[in-house]
Amino acid sequence: MSTPVRERPxxxxxxxxxxxxxxxxxxxxxxxxxxxxxxxxVTLRRNxxxxxxxxxxxxxxxxxxxxxxxxxxxxxxxLWLTVVFANLAEAVAEGRGKAQAATLRRARTGTRARRLTSxxxxxxxxxxxxxxxxxxxxVVEAGEVIPGDxxxxxxxxxxxxxxxTGESAPVIRESGGDRSAVTGxxxxxxxxxxxxxxxxxxxxxxxxMIALVEGADxxxxxxxxxxxxxxxxxxxxxxxxxxxxxxxxxxxRSVNPGGPDSLALTGDGVTGVVLVSLLVCLIPTTIGALLSxxxxxxxxxLVQRNVLAMSGRAVEAAGDVSTLLLDKTGTITLGNxxxxxxxxxxxxxxxxxxxxxxxxxxxxETPEGRSIVVFAKQRYGLREREVHGARWVRFxxxxxxxxxxxxxxxxxxxxxxxxMTWVREAGGHPADEVGHIVDxxxxxxxxxxxxxxxxxxxGVIHLKDVVKQGMxxxxxxxxxxxxxxxxxxxxxxxxxxxIADEAGVDDFLAEATPExxxxxxxxxxxxxxxxxxxxxxxxxxxxxxxxxxxxxMNTGTSAAKEAGxxxxxxxxxxxxxxxVEIGKQLLITRGALTTFSIANDVAKYFAIIxxxxxxxxxxxxxxxxxxxxSPQSAVLSAVIFNALIIVALIPLALxxxxxxxxxxxxxxxxxxxxxxxxxxVAPFIGIKLIDLIVQFLPGMS
Length: 701
Prior knowledge:
With about 700 residues, the chain is of the alpha+beta class. It is built from 24 helices and 21 strands. A hairpin with a 2-residue loop joins strand 15 (about 445-455) and strand 16. The longest helix has about 40 residues, at about 575-615. It is elongated.
């Protein structure tokens, strides 16, 4: 038998995110080398807009060398800065997760495993964690790090998952059931487990998380591809339009010989620099520079909330979701039924019923039993007491009752059928009134528990599955966004309807089976809707795989996590609503900055075109609404503004446009008003202010 494995210390909490602002100087300094490396045309070819800008900057550099002037070199410097600033936006977005990735990588590479070669007797060999293969069995004891993703096939242990989730509270993992999945890089705190490895080499949870937070090999989403095609088309159109500018100016000179030169005809290399400046200012450089950063930042916002998305496509799909499937227990309701009222039968006072209910619940250790004791204390002032000489009857699933024998008093509390049977066996006859009370509580969505003493029924306890605070408001917000919410529950239709009405969901699926969930998802998708749901068990895997956004709980089985396209490390089912909001924020941010960029280009047209051709076509001077100092200062001011606006918008691209639940029409109107109008106004103000400074430079008058 091999010797025990010595492990390195557990990785610290992966909190390597930037604590300062979005443009924290330290963050910019760390990202600058990556931004410079991205100047490689091979890397930049993924962004056709910025590739054109870089080609223009290189061409302008050659022209400035051949015909040097302060104006030409100033333009060249700002053209290169435009490309660097665009790369910086992407580098900053990627850099926000690199410290976390480094910590996760140490957790992966610093672990060794005891791989079982024989279970009886137990024998193993020691291998590096990356050498493990799917199906290997490994032994992990207290103090050791779990070497890879897998399922517990033997034993039970307390596991510290803080390296992955950031939460210090340990969790229980055991063989069988829906809490058998373990993640590589987490640490066993107690006991001993045998884990069956389910990952393939290089595809572990940590590997995928590292790729996510680093933005490495990030695949473009369908929406990004479509927008890139649009931006490339606009770039080609403006490229053709710009290329015709000088022939047009030459023709104008032939028609009007002896007229003054325009910037399109100076001939000393300035013409080419000005034409490149025109092209760079008119193509959608702003959104071209920020598009990748917006996508990476959207993924990062999910990571900040401990959600791992397997692809950007899943995040976008979350933004387009129109149907949410939500489990009742733990998502819409608290999950533990709690006492909400005591209903006595005729001739019994509420105080007497409360006292009997509390006494009969003192031996009930279930959450329901504890809530009855607390409710009697809070509502009726009954304190827990020390009872001497009592024989306690503890609650069991078989008897479905709890109670106490105290001298001549025999008190029982439990399910209606069980307590009624006990009353009849004691020689009593439950009144018809009890049945009506029980049916009424069931119809309202509650759970009735009957309280009896000897041969008579005292009354009924109303247990209520409490809807979480604020859920009705959140569902109302979903409705305003055009999202339909469906509650899934195993309750009977009567109880399900009552809870659905209280929570404010649009529809419900009662007595749901895995087949019912799958059928519901397919029905919704046939209507053209995108569906999101959560799940944690193996029986949820088919529905998670079928849904457009399937969020698996980290505490769930490996089958569920493989089937879904997102994993919630906190295992909080209500987080599905936040995921949808993050997805919508991503789409809104991309749309808003695209609107701003295109509007921005329209405004810059009024700065450069008059500067280039006003001398040839005096009528164009009416378009010079900014009254810029000179054609040279106008061109340089526009180029400088074009570069600086990218830096100014990096925080917005990373943080995202503020999301407010509203209809698509209202969102479109807001975008057009705020970002469309703002995109037109901002250049007029910015270029004019820069011009006031630039005009004092030599050669700009």
